[in-house]
């Protein structure tokens, strides 16, 4: 009954999508964005391999990425309603960013 009320109420706004449809879109978007963010940080693996082979990259960018991801994970975890897509999208960035940073040092 409550969900039906939300759908009816959201139709009142000109051009607005029903709340249920918007919620489904946001749910799908959060999952896709989480996967893409994880892929972005997994892409550090090639740089880590290069660093271990002696072809060192710059350490600043992965260090800042790890710091940024740490802050976003803290934000997502400590919100009143935890934001798991933001947390899981950034958690791999902490790990891969730090590994990349450490292997950049020579």
From TrEMBL:
| Transmembrane helix among keywords | yes
**Highest taxon, organism lineage:** Bacteria
Q: Which UniProt keywords apply?
A: Membrane, Transmembrane, Transmembrane helix
Q: What parts of the sequence cross the membrane?
A: 28-46, 58-78, 84-105
Instruction: Supply the name of the protein.
Output: Membrane protein
Q: Which organism is it from?
A: Limosilactobacillus caviae
